[in-house]
Amino acid sequence: MHRHAEKLWTHDAGLSALLGLLFLQIFVVFPFVDSTAGKMLVPIVFTLIVVSGVMTVIGTPHWGRMVIVLGILSLMSRLVTYERYSAALESLNTVLSIFFIGLLMFVILIQVFREGPVNAHRIAGSVAVYLLLGTLWGSIYFLIALHAPWSFQFTAGSVPAQPHALAAKFVYFSFITLTSVGYGDIVPVHPLAQTTATLEAIIGQLFPAILLARLVSLEIADRSSARPCGQDDPDSTGRSTE
């Protein structure tokens, strides 16, 4: 049983598991974060994401250790913040989450782009990085709002009073910025917030194109290396070229 669990997390299948947990957090938990069930699920799902992320990168000795340390610190800080809230703890928790998500994205990209066939799990890993990118920027927006609450203008409804609800709002704003949708219900008005949103919009356009090109090149390289040495490419008539 232990061998099967280890194989799941140290191979590409762990990337698909991480993607599933990210979908659960962003599209199921966050929309209902104000409810009683949502408040209970937020720390539970975050814990699962930390564990999943740590186990996914456990095979990378140096970077994996850093992800483990940051993941544990981020989880502990988040739990303490839920029990005893303070602005300083919330800021520390957000900073740790930013570093943890950023390093996790980097290590996942190493796994996605390593040599070998491009399978469904690696594609799932690349999608997970895209979702982590939106979550990362949401945390950055939340950190800006903690220190400068006037940085964003909410044109539809009032600003959420609870920190976890406000953080979920900024994750929503992050994804509509990342995908260049821009409904206009949340508007960055501070120069730092505007610059951050502009940078995310640019990355949102470049990342999928660069990612797709890299995955295609890896697939072509893998097929070329898998071809028997000395075998010529057939032409359109099926005959070998001279």
Characterize the structure shown:
With 242 residues, the protein is mostly helical. It has a single domain (2-223), classed as Helix Hairpins, CATH 1.10.287. 73% of the residues lie in helices and 2% in strands. The protein has eight helices and two strands; from the N terminus they run ααααααβαβα. The chain has helices spanning 2-10, 13-29, 36-56, 61-83, 87-112, 120-147, 163-178, 191-226, and strands at 152-154, 186-188. The chain has a two-stranded antiparallel ribbon with strand order 1-2. Helix 3 packs antiparallel against helix 4 (61-83), helix 4 packs antiparallel against helix 5 (87-112) and helix 6 (120-147) packs across helix 7. It is globular, with a radius of gyration of 21 Å. Mean pLDDT is 78; it is low at 1-10 and 232-242.
